[in-house]
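ok so heres the complex, two chains, lmk if somethin looks off
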Amino acid sequence: MTRFLARRLAFAAFLVFAVSSASLVLARLAEGDYVSGTLGVEARRETTEQLRARYGLDKPIAAQYADWLRRAVRFDFGSSLLYDRPVRELVPERAANTAILALAALALATLIGVPLGIVAGSRNGLLSASIRSTSIVFLSLPPLLTSLLLVFMAARTGWFPIAGIRSAAVPPGGKAIDLLHHLVVPACALALPLAAVFERLQAQAMGEVIAEPFITAALARGVGWRRIVWRDGLKPALRPVAAIYGLAIGTLLSGSFAVEVITSWPGLGNLMLQALRARDVYLVAGCAGAGALFLAVGTLVSDVALAVVDPRARE
Amino acid sequence: MKLVGLLAIAMAVTGAFAAPIAVPHAPDQRFAGLLNAPPTRPHIIDDAGGWHAPFIYRWRLANRLEQRYEEDRSVRIPLVWWTNGAFVQSSDETSAPFLLFGADSFGRDVFSRLLVGARTSLALASIAALGAMLVGGAIGGLAGYSGGSVDDALMRATDFVMVLPATYVALALRSVLPLVLSPAKVFMLLASIFALVGAPFIARGVRAIVRSERRSEYASAAQALGASDARLLLRHLLPATRGFVAVQMTMLVPAFIVAEATLSYVGLGFPDPVASWGTMLHDAANVSVFADFPWLLSPAVAMFLVVLGVNLLLQGRTAGPTGSGRHVRWPM
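and the predicted structre for the whole thing:
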């Protein structure tokens, strides 16, 4: 188990390092830089050169990368050129917003998808068929489309705020309620497609478990069907869904990009987009590193959880 | 159910192929007096209850600020068929064009743009899927056939790419190049990025199949007859992966359509006058716009139908050795 953990941790560290380095180099390779983007081509030569020197953009890529790396090991990731704030302050702030969104969506998807999957997988009939067809519809709606649809509905009905993370004035009920209220549209947009994936997977797993001899044996002993499904069958049937939690983290991160842009959620996706467009190299590297960290932690947690449940997964 | 799925896909493909004759207007033709005009409804009964050949009413601007329009019911404008190389048009194109799905904020015909955009989006997605097949097939075939350290290295690399969130990879790679590029360049660029991101999904399965088929009797027989490595791989082993590759590509195409839409939505896809489903959504991007003019979301509906079609088509099929689902994965 220790070796398994060590290998996983090494991979996680490598992932964060490789992704942030690659994105820094990529952003630097990009045509045009932050200075030419903000000052324009008509600016005085001395001014642009001065600014480039201040930001470290005048050095060759290798030298700049080495500088950045040297400071990064001391947890100084440079300053965002766009916001004129240290990346170390700015990125965690936005990453927390993305984490709130992703975790809310994951919880919502699990709460909707898994029980419906158990119901759909353990019986035949109208209910199961309608759950199944609803799932197929939501499987066909990527987060880009669900968020457009939900924003459209929210704008028409006026029930939920359609953009941002908090109201200008703190409403009655306090900040937490306000945040939850703003979270409804983006979290649902992100959760619904994932809930459909969970439902299909869970229904399939449940169907397979029910066909096992031990279920027939339990039935023969006179155990009630409901008890069999929700107690005996549930545990082995949960494994497939648990196994894709790690993958789901990547899907959530990717999906949250579209959702964040459409609902103006101030998360990593929006920040990354701004940084890329402004050629804000240090911010790009910071955002990419934070995203990779999410991914690494997510896969690590799900791998460890799976290894605890299923010893075969440790190899 | 499969039939319904097939029908939805056929509709999109027919629309794309028929676009040159089916569209009433050029995708960049602007009707200055009809910004955000709602869809024109074809009628066959007039207010007096008389029956006519299909006709439309002219839109009259009721409120310029809110861009609200009313039907001018005093004049019937008959629809004409097969004129000016278009399937159907109104007989008075300049003042009362036939806008089946309304007009966008530039006064362009949404229906025409939808069909022309289908060509862009579907072509991009299909070519990218083809590229993913070539790259993925090559990597998977090589890894599965040679085994050992080559296999290890290639599979590590594909695992790594698969772990990364595809949207961000595409975003980062896209933004390396200048923001403003010619449409043809954007097409090539997006196709190669998508092919690269999609290839690992194909490579993994191809590798597994090639590995197991390599040990089969027909492979040993071919080898005993003196077939070279290349011949064995290309003629005997890779054809065995065909079913798997076909299913994977069917799943990649809609994923790529959505990926294009995502990139274009945020302004990193095709430049403005080009019609694609993504650029159309980009034009509708503002909530205050599409909440009042819902017909601007028709590319979203088109995308949903294509994905739904593929999902219905794939019901009951397994995705092959890598398992994990019989549906389009998000994103990619």
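quick notes: The longest helix of chain B spans residues 110-146. thats all i got rn
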